[in-house]
TrEMBL record, chain A:
<feature type="signal peptide">
    <location>
        <begin position="1"/>
        <end position="22"/>
    </location>
</feature>
<dbReference type="InterPro" id="IPR042100">
    <property type="entry name" value="Bug_dom1"/>
</dbReference>
<keyword id="KW-0732">Signal</keyword>
<comment type="similarity">
    <text>Belongs to the UPF0065 (bug) family.</text>
</comment>
<protein>
    <submittedName>
        <fullName>TRAP-T family transporter periplasmic binding protein</fullName>
    </submittedName>
</protein>
<dbReference type="InterPro" id="IPR005064">
    <property type="entry name" value="BUG"/>
</dbReference>
UniProtKB/TrEMBL annotation, chain B:
<dbReference type="Pfam" id="PF01970">
    <property type="entry name" value="TctA"/>
</dbReference>
<feature type="transmembrane region" description="Helical">
    <location>
        <begin position="65"/>
        <end position="90"/>
    </location>
</feature>
<feature type="transmembrane region" description="Helical">
    <location>
        <begin position="396"/>
        <end position="415"/>
    </location>
</feature>
<feature type="transmembrane region" description="Helical">
    <location>
        <begin position="600"/>
        <end position="627"/>
    </location>
</feature>
<feature type="transmembrane region" description="Helical">
    <location>
        <begin position="151"/>
        <end position="171"/>
    </location>
</feature>
<keyword id="KW-1133">Transmembrane helix</keyword>
<feature type="transmembrane region" description="Helical">
    <location>
        <begin position="520"/>
        <end position="538"/>
    </location>
</feature>
<feature type="transmembrane region" description="Helical">
    <location>
        <begin position="202"/>
        <end position="222"/>
    </location>
</feature>
<feature type="transmembrane region" description="Helical">
    <location>
        <begin position="110"/>
        <end position="139"/>
    </location>
</feature>
Amino acid sequence: MTKFTRAALAALLAATPFAATAETDLSGETVEWVIPFSETGGSAKWANFFAPLLSEALPGQPTVVVKFMPGAGSTKGANWFHEQENGDGTLIFGSSGSTQFPYLLNDPRVRYEYNDWEPVMATGTGGVAYLEPEAGAKFDGSANALQDIDFIYGSQGATRLDLVPLLAWEMLGMNVEPVFGIKGRGDGRLMFERGEANIDYQTTSGYLGGSADLVEQGQAVAMMTWGALDEDGNIVRDPTFPDLPTFKEVCEATEGCETSGEAWDAWKAFFVAGFPVQKLAFLPKGTDQEVIDTYVAAFETVRNRDDFEQISSQTVGEYPVFVGEGAQRALEQATSVPQGAKDYVKTWLRDSYGVELEG
Amino acid sequence: MEMIATALPALGQAWALILQPMVLGYLVLGVVMGLAVGVFPGLGGIAGLSLLLPFMFGMDPVLGLALMIGMVAVVPTSDTFASVLMGIPGSSASQATVLDGFPMAKRGEAARALSAAFTSSLFGGLVGAAFLTLFILVARPIVLAFGLPEMLMITVFGLSMVAILAGRVALKGVAAAGLGLLIGTIGEADAGGSLRMSTYDIPYLIDGLQLVIVGLGIFAIPEIVSLLRQDRAISQDANLGAGWADGVRDWFANKWLSVRCSIIGVVVGVIPGLGGSVVDWIAYGHTVQSTRDTSEFGLGNVRGVIGPESSNNAKEGGGLVPTLLFGIPGSGSMAIFIGAIALLGSGDIEVGPSMLRDNLDITYSIVWLLALANVVGTLLCIAASGGIARLTTIRFTYLAPFLFMLIAFAAFQSGQNFEDLLALFAIGLIGVFLRRFDWSRPAFLIGFVLSNPIEKFSNQAVQIASFRFRKSFEEGMEYVFSPIVIVLIVITVLSVVFGLRQAKAIAAEGEVPTGSKRAPVAFLLLIMGYVVAALINANAIPDYNMTDKIVPLVVGGVTLAACLMLMVQMMRRPESDAVFADKEMAGEDADAPHGLWGTLAWFAGLIAATWVVGFILALVGFLLAFFRIRAGCGWGKTLLLSAAGVGFMCLMASALNRDFPPGLLQDAFDLPWPLR
């Protein structure tokens, strides 16, 4: 663990109401953890990892089951959760970047309001962009020599998490043409391995699971990470990849790329909503403070397990798990995107990809 | 040589891992659970696996793998029960089995069909495992050679199976496939997000229709309704003539067909992105093409069971390659499998490129656990088949309400919307009419299954190809016409030529009488109406989203052309021509004691009541009314059967941790489970 993460953790620990008196007893109950995705996605993996640990840590050891409610790019499940009011601690909801982005972009399907819900836990991730070796050889910490290359990128859609890499590459002046319609980042990596795409990005777990191998064998060159956030909200190097420059550093070194102004603010806002605060666990609106405290204490216990760092390496990586007030702050960071940034991204989506978002 | 030097010790270690009493015990446990879930149509491996997930955390890796693999491996085996006995495709893996398996059951040869199917499944699974043991070492470059143009060509090859399954009037087959493709495009486009034949006001349609619902609607509902109208047992013969030993002999007589179809299964399963849902159709097509006398296909030719069943278990093995080597799931259940592996033990087994290097022994354990699970599952299934085959001798009116109950429950699980039930009914209605007018239902289903891959691969391949062509003409040609693509084109052309020659002989719906012109023409006009609406709708998508409109436009255009040509034929030909096929004119449907609409109304009633009072209360009323009024049972029997149905439904839902469709009542009041 780096110094930064430890500092961040310490700060968060201090902010957590440690002495929360857990009077809520859930013995014999079944807690449903609703995920607005199918059984096959990353959020399912995330919830399935935490569910048994949470069950152990909650008073009365209730059964925690993960339920899947996929549909409409996760907005269906989120809309459903917004109408739930049984704040007795038997229902929790997990959202992800894919739930946050439509909310931020005023997608017409969104009928939920994040600020009504009670966040109890949040985790983040990072992302790494990489290039095929020939282009990688021209990469010198700046994108100055990459301007004349035609890049192809396998993308899930410009309004998804892919917004972050696509906007970053455009700010660097790179000519990246997205091929839309792939079903997951794994498919994007496969396209890259087949030589059909020549630029790609993966979230941390995807990168470590597949792409790091390509880089080791010289079939790919790592370009940059999106970075991580420090306590003051500054972008710093990703603790998992301390040797890789962040997009911010590359941008500073590249002619014509600015780390201030409209474009930068917009990119940073969506980066924060998509990566450092990617997944959040919520209790429904109007839940009793007592129940909230119980959950906060339980996640606290989970996070402090001796073996947590080891068993969580694949689901969470070396990123902090925010609990209680830390999760609240994380939510604020993830959802308070200035109107200017939203407008910028909407205009960019319309002009570059013909995506019309009402509202 | 070096390869074998690393492979052999790993293989030995794998067997040492597997051959422990505990491991085998968990494997059998998984198999039994898989059979219990897989027997019910439409649930399949995903429901079963997510049931196991909570137990995977920190479990000993080999034990956890044994449990999960036992479960996954037997689903394509056990789903055969529903396909053969009821004519209901149990999962996407056994759709083609319905074509010949169900007619055999009707003929009283259910046990023979089942044991032929199970033996083929077993053999396919073993061939798959043996092939994989060597292939997995060299698979990586081969899998990577399949780029977008290659995958597009495989999809086109799958679509070319329509030529074999088109039925007696080829144009109808083309139109049915086109309709399936068009219905597959409903919803939000993958590429640009445009809406096709849907609106944001009906969120249900945005995600498109699920394969489970379309499969059940197209095959299950028409068969259930037809049998229910005739009010008899499935088997026309009360004593089940041919037994399970005959089925094994049938398999032995066709062992080379079984080998070939197993290889087809592994090879198609290996290619990521196709999901293997066409494997059984390709195997069926191959079976037909390689048989001299095709007159019996669709009427109960045992080869039509052996082919697809040999391929679908082999496919599961093939699907392990992209899953283990690339960390890219070949199917939904494989995706959960990957997620679950990360929870096992200390979480250090990581699926992906490093799997072969670091965990070759685990890899081989997975391959051979799969094979072993196949053996155990098959033996259990064969042992059970004689008894379960007796279901076909029960008066169908006693079975039908339970089947309606099961398919409604299964359909609801696909999306957990009330609209799932409506979609099931609507697709079921299409299925009923396709069957009645002898439009090929397999062609429709193939079209639906391949709709998304065709659209995705063609859009992406064109985009990348245009990129290459911009660089240089040679580079573009090299990309588009790779050796694999050329070989696939040749195979496809040959398959279509052979297929058309043999297609006329295959009567998937049996002999269909003809009669008046009015009903067939009206149905054609209805289809044309939808096609025109879809065309207008697609044309309204702005041009900068060309990727979202081009496929519906092209497919719709071809379908419309086929419909127009049919119209011309209908105008010119006499009433006795095959183009006017109509099952209501003569034969068992026309002579049935009960009408079509009256029978469908029962199912509609269940759905309507669900909308008001929720599924379980509606089910209580439906079962009571059905057994008392339609089946004419005494009160004792009525109560007993209804209680059994409702009790079973609750038991299954609570074991699988699933909900029931709620109704207006549930919106207004908070009720306890299972009424919730």
